[in-house]
Amino acid sequence: MVVRASAADEKPFHSAELLFPLEAWHNHGSCIVETAAGDLLVCWFHGSGERKADDVIIEGARLRRGEKTWSARFQLADTPGYPDGNPCMTLGPDGRLWLFYTTILAHTWESALLKVRTSRDYAGDRAPRWETSEVVHVTPGAEFEAAVARRLPELETALKQLPLTDKQRKESGEFLDAMRRHTGDELYRRLGWMTRAHPVWLDGGRLIVPLYHDGFSFSLMAFTDDGGRTWRTSTPLIGAGNIQPSLVARRDGSLVAYMRDNGPPPHRVQASESPDRGETWSTVVDLDLPNPGAGTDLIKLRNGHWVFIGNDTEQGRHSLAVKISDDEGHTWKWTRHLERDAPGAAAGSYHYPSIIQTRDGSLHTSYSYFLSRNAVPKPAGGEPATKAIKHAHFNEAWVQAGDGKQASTEP
């Protein structure tokens, strides 16, 4: 038996690299997983834009166990003539790789169609051989309408109490009116649900896929208890702009969702709880963690610690921090920055992180790495190369050592 040292006894280490050289085309929204062989797989979307660009595809790359260089990029999914985006992955208990992503039907986020592919043959520096490729039908029912009807008056009251500008108050009123109008539209509420963070497996084989909707600007969980043959949805997680949930399980078995804040100030990570394996969710509340309207990720380590990663600002994505809590998110005792630029025109954008703990106990993250166009010379007759996906490898001891401390570049 191997006895692993505690984080306090480990030697801090950190290393990082780009998966591929910077380029002008858009590369965004990554997700990272570890395979049974100990390889790392990362997926992201790539194209000349996002929802309005019909050339957007899902790409991937592999880092073999023990190696330092990522494989050449390969295509994971493409719907010809449509933008594909927002991919996420998970490995099932049976070793199957699951890829969830969206196809944008009409160049709006609200027209997103949720899809899933699975594979048992994904070894080697190539794309997986997909054995299934299906649509996930997200079907909120009567409980969805009832939950929105209950929550709207509470939201209206809460928004009236905020010190908003006239513009913000007008936008809030329009948001509530749209939510009320769209809730009863069967087609609208069945489309537009998108993935972002890792799906989560619970004991007993339940798979929960965290979803969000840019039109409703709130979140929902889709879950299956039969390996994806049928899907059900939770009650909605309704707040003033709470999207892109990531999930952890507490020691008592309840679930916690942390969400991006797309609502009015103050801009904070928002949270909700479920006592029943993700079927119903509590009122959404603000936490003390700043959020500038950007994706985050949250995981639980095998020692019970929680790791949170996200932009620790209320404005701008120029600072990307990792935080560790040893009391299930009540306090965050340790923080260290993976990226931190001074705010301004030359600041980069480091965002949409995905994080995992691998079997050796260390941490791996992938995230969008965008340099400012003002910081990169523009080539003659072309666009500057500013965008890539970055990978970082580190341990708890590195985070706990804090900013400015020296660390090994080798684990």
Shape: globular
Total helices: the number is 4
Distance between the termini: 20 Å
The residue fraction in helices comes out at 10-25%
Reported for the largest beta sheet, the result is: 5 strands, antiparallel
Q: What would you report as the Rg, rounded to the nearest angstrom?
A: 21 Å
How many domains make up the coordinates? 3
Structural class: mainly beta
Strand proportion, as a percent range, falls in 35-45%
Global mean pLDDT: 95
Order of helices and strands: EEEEEEEEEHHHEEEEEEEEEEEEEEEEH
- Total strand segments: 25
Uncertain segments are: 1-5
Write structural notes for this entry.
The protein has helices at about 140-160, 165-185, 185-190, 395-400; strands at about 15-20, 25-35, 40-45, 55-65, 75, 85-90, 95-105, 110-120, 130-135, 195, 200, 205-215, 220-225, 230-235, 240-250, 255-260, 270-275, 285-290, 295-300, 305-310, 320-325, 335-340, 350-355, 365-370, 385-395. It is globular. Helix 1 (about 140-160) runs antiparallel to helix 2. With about 400 residues, the chain is mostly beta strands. The strands form 6 sheets. Strands 10, 11, 12, 13 and 14 form a 5-stranded antiparallel beta sheet that branches. The protein has a 4-stranded antiparallel beta sheet with strand order 1-25-24-23. The chain has a 4-stranded antiparallel beta sheet with strand order 2-3-4-5, with no helix packed on it.
Features:
5-stranded antiparallel sheet; 25 strands; mainly beta; 38% strand; disordered N terminus; 3 domains; globular; 411 residues; 4 helices; 12% helix; 4-stranded antiparallel sheet
